Amino acid sequence: MKRVVTTALALTFALFGWALAREKAPSRKGAAGAAKAPTHHVLNASEITWGEAPPGLPAGSKVALLQGDPGKPGMFTVRVKAPDGYRVAKHWHPTAEHLTILSGSFNVLMGDGTDMSKATALTAGAFATMPAKMRHELVCRGETEFQVSAMGPFVITYVNPADDPRKPSP
Ligand SMILES: [Cu+2]
């Protein structure tokens, strides 16, 4: 059991450690400029810095961290740009996931079922939320851009370990 917890923690950092290094989003402080004071955060689309998918996601997507740090407690938001046919196999997270679809078609199947013909197609403007630990899988039709907000620490656990692109050693 302890090993499972340790592995999960390790995966958290493996998955999102990249994000810290990539965050270049401008943070505009108030006139006082206090380092730790809460402040607003604005980001135009042209200012978003895209990187490769983190190891916990299948290769091929681009990911941008917009806010927060998925590896730490607290709210974070990431944007994902996925190619046609991009699939994330059945998985779950320790915290609730909130999705906004910006373009393309995000086909999500909630629960333990595997019949993707029963997936719900979400298109631009759609929103979905699912509670912590709810199983889900998805496939994108056409280039699809979506945004994920959740509370960290955030982990992706694949129901079938063979689907895990990190391929953790047994
Ligand atoms: Cu998910």
Notes on the structure:
With 170 residues, the chain is mainly β. It has a single domain, classed as Jelly Rolls, CATH 2.60.120. The chain contains one helix and nine strands. The protein has one helix at residues 2-22, and strands at 51-52, 62-67, 74-82, 87-92, 97-110, 120-123, 127-130, 136-152, 157-158. Strands 1, 2, 3, 4, 5, 6, 7, 8 and 9 form a nine-stranded antiparallel beta sheet that branches. A hairpin with a 6-residue loop joins strand 2 (62-67) and strand 3 (74-82). It is globular, with a radius of gyration of 16 Å. It starts with a helix and ends in a 12-residue tail after the last strand. Mean pLDDT is 85; it is low at 1-33. The protein binds copper (II) ion. Copper (II) ion binds at residues 91, 93, 97, 136.
